[in-house]
Task: structure prediction
Amino acid sequence: MLQKHKEPYIQQIRDDRLKDVQLFVKREDVIHPFISGNKWHKLKYNLSEAQKQGYDTLLTFGGAYSNHIYATAAAAREAGFSSIGIIRGDELKGQPLNRTLTFAREQGMRLEFVDRTAYRNKTDEVFVQRLHERFGPFYLIPEGGTNNLAISGCAEMVNDEVRTFDYICCSAGTGGTVSGLIAGMNSAGYVIGFAALKGDFLEKEVRKLLTGHSNAQLTNWEIQTRYHFGGYAKSHEQLKRFMQDFEQRHQALLDPVYTGKMMYGVFDLIAEKYFPSGSKVLAIHTGGLQGR
Ligand SMILES: *Cc1c(COP(=O)(O)O)cnc(C)c1O
Result:
């Protein structure tokens, strides 16, 4: 149902700081102007499932700056669904919309603001039941779009060429994308998820997602928790300087929440000699440039 506007390609990064590590970037950010990077892959099978089950409305959750809300609104419109976005923070009600939410509404998404306590309990049966009473039937896509179908979609970022790399690096929020990459690599290479958020929940979460997705016991992965820069939207002078410099050298834009932190982490690991000499490292550009 979702069309790619462009095929992703692999770009080699030539940079004197790499020493004898070969670094490449898979440009998933180019596949669609609005449903970019990993979000396209996460939504792909969810949309076809929603259609198969006969739904004409998608409902999902996110914060006011969420790439997932932005992408879901665009995907719903492109595939002919109505969409509802449950947005965290009832203090936003009646306020001018930021650019992410303005775009979502322009795509036809109905925005509903809920207070933070209610939002925290959004997966409770009672809460979902109330949403159904209010909005009628809808296909529910979880926060961040992470579920089994999303993992299957993200696994498709891996092809034979990707499988030849020693290391695959990607940014991780809810962990759906990195789980898909681990599943797709299926014990080839080694996958590193760079946590964009503070906290140690991700490793457990990824293990749970992988167990739910397949029975294979995959151990060729890890979560790096040293590069979140304080949390979700928190940015840092050092990170900003790194991103500006990277963008100038390599003609690839990064965002401060996800890909910027990952790339900073990759360069930091290279400086620490984490990767053995001669390693071929592939960083996945998961998109998210609307957040810049
Ligand atoms: C949403 C997002 C992520 C995180 O993906 P998860 O599947 O939630 O871990 C990473 N990078 C970008 C650019 C994103 O928009």
Summary: The domain at 10-35+147-291 is CATH 3.40.50.1100 (Rossmann fold). The chain has a mean pLDDT of 96. The pocket of pyridoxal-5'-phosphate is lined by residues 37-39, 67-68, 144, 146, 171-178, 258-259, 286-288 (CB under 6 Å).
